[in-house]
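Input chain follows. Return structure tokens only.
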Amino acid sequence: IVILIFCHIITLMQIIRSATQGEVVLSFLQGEFESSRFGEELRQVLDFFGFSYSLISDGDFCDEKQNEDRLKVFKKFRGFPDQDLFERFPKDIEWSFVQFSKEDFFNCYYINYSYWNELSDFTSQPTTACKNILAGKEVFGVSNKNFLRGKELLGKVQFPPVILLSCNPKKYLIIEGHSRMTLYGFNPDFFDGTFGYIGKVSKEEMCLYDSRMI
């Protein structure tokens, strides 16, 4: 009942089912594995532990041993659950696998990170970032070529699920999928009907992690 009420209040997103931490961790790592920016670093971490790349590329979140191994990778790669990107990250999260609507897109915000802040004129909104990209704005000397190439793939390929976090029915924090959400910003119609994960957390925990989302 709680999940259904949350779904109704948030927007038109449809909650398909509950999800486990193991499933979300696997999805996060799969998104990074395919990334031109982070993929090589993730493969180096897998090599460090002597794990097969299939732990990510063909992982099974129902396999507890695999889940344990992925947590080791995730900790070294991104500091999960309490360091680096995940410093003060909420511990009590109710994860759901959902299908998004176009309207949900406009409630999504970048994490509080210098690159995304600058690219979005400190709005943290992908649509603003896209306007700046099309206007030729580049941040910290980082080329926008990958965004412009990715723009041409909208509607032609299926992007991996994005991962969001929320305590507020009108604000969703992007945890994984910033570049993909930026591509959707060129044409939010393509976000409609896509799948992803959303974690519901308390306002108290969200305040510690990112008070902008309260």
